[in-house]
Specification:
Layout (H helix, E strand, L loop, with lengths): L24 E2 L2 E2 L9 H8 L30 H9 L1 E5 L6 E6 L9 E4 L5 E5 L3 H5 L8 H8 L5 E5 H7 L15 H15 L5 H12 L23
Antiparallel strand pairs: 1-2, 3-4, 4-5, 6-7
Helix pairs in contact: 1-6, 1-7
């Protein structure tokens, strides 16, 4: 299992690292160490608020702002930030922002090798907590700045195989888990981290599924960091 790097966007943590992986440095940026002691992910999952899923009424992608906004003000859009963070053998076009080529040596979701080529990509940037799922579990009631922050937070983003990601859709832990079983603990810990950070609730079935997965890996750490939970005012859509 590959160790995903931290370090693309401002102060990104070591997101979804499997127990035993260490933070690495890439192109002069470093991912801070994970926080929390043994069992931090399971403890956090147990603390999440349980409510029913609200209706999807009113959801649209643009309620979370323009896609891939440069909320960390590094002059690169969020999608390219995550590609730079997660791909190996990265090549650029027109500077050091637009990624033209890279390789997922072991896709977190499927475990297979996937090549990224700009314009005909087999790589997606997935929202670990899908935006429509977030909408139905609290984000509907947020102001624009918090929704934009969630959509562009590196803590909630990961480069993955496109076909596997599209099979996920907007599923939560109760309805979808990565086919790559070796990544499931880290994946669920990531969902827990995002929902805890942003105050999103979970359904009873979702919480039970989270606890079932994390009980099998009681030392799983909880990812942390990412961007602030409020986007800069210039990005506010409403």
């Amino acid at each position: 299992m590959r160790c995903l790097r931290g370090g693309a966007a401002a102060a990104v943590v070591l997101v979804f690292a499997v127990a035993g992986c260490k933070a690495e440095t890439k192109t002069g940026t470093a991912g801070p160490e994970r926080t929390g002691g043994g069992g931090a992910a399971l403890t956090a999952a147990e603390s999440l608020t349980v409510k029913g899923r609200a209706p999807k009424t009113g959801y649209a992608r643009d309620r979370f702002g323009t896609a891939w906004a440069d909320t960390d003000s590094n002059s690169c859009d969020t999608r390219d930030d995550i590609l730079k963070r997660d791909l190996d053998q990265v090549k650029f076009t027109g500077g050091t922002c637009k990624v033209s080529y890279g390789v997922l040596k072991s896709d977190p979701y499927s475990g297979k090798r996937v090549t990224y080529r700009r314009g005909r990509s087999q790589v997606d940037i997935d929202h670990i907590v899908a935006l429509s799922d977030a909408w139905q579990k609290g984000a509907k009631y947020w102001d624009a700045s918090k929704r934009i922050a969630l959509a562009n937070d590196p803590l909630n983003l990961i480069a993955v195989d496109a076909s596997t990601n599209r099979a996920k859709g907007d599923g939560d832990t109760a309805t979808w888990l990565p086919p790559n079983k070796a990544f499931r603990c880290a994946y669920v810990a990531g969902q827990v981290a995002v929902k805890k950070k942003y105050g999103l609730w979970v359904t009873a079935a979702e919480k039970a599924a989270m606890k079932k997965v994390l009980t099998s890996c009681p030392d799983q750490k909880l990812p942390s960091g990412g961007n602030p939970t409020k986007a800069p005012s210039r990005f506010h859509a409403d």
